[in-house]
């Protein structure tokens, strides 16, 4: 069962990285390369936030996970050693409400909506851009759950190896907690301004 959990972690990261690449290349890249500006710079910034940084982190994490050869301790180490890097998700998650608002604004413009639909069709995405922009928010909050599955099926629930797995769970749980906390503070600050 542990082997299946390891496979799920690597495969789901591979799919996630592929989805991020399609956003970066298939939407953002097309917007940047367009001869006539399709979206205003502030719309692009609000819409995509720091998705390129997240794609870079995910690509590196995927390479590390693929080199772990289904070793649960090596997988746990990947998360522990990158713990500081996951902070970039905070910025993305805090920006996410602005992203949703920017997308809604784009969909009210016939030209922008058509452009985004054309990108979607070119990528053969069944779901619209909004569904893909939500993926980083969902993914960062799922890592600790995947790591908990490793711990649940770990053969020896003691020793240094198990401690590394627990440290990875703790690390990613703290990241998820921190992101949720920053999101609450961000929302509270917006309510205070209103």
TrEMBL record:
SMART domains recorded: RhoGEF (SM00325)
Segments forming domain DH: 1-182
Gene3D superfamilies: Dbl homology (DH) domain (1.20.900.10)
Family annotation (SUPFAM superfamilies): DBL homology domain (DH-domain)
InterPro entries documented for this protein: DBL_dom_sf, DH_dom
BP GO annotations: regulation of establishment of cell polarity
GO molecular-function term, one example from the UniProt record: guanyl-nucleotide exchange factor activity
Protein's recorded name: Pleckstrin homology domain-containing family G member 3
Species this chain originates from: Cuculus canorus (Common cuckoo)
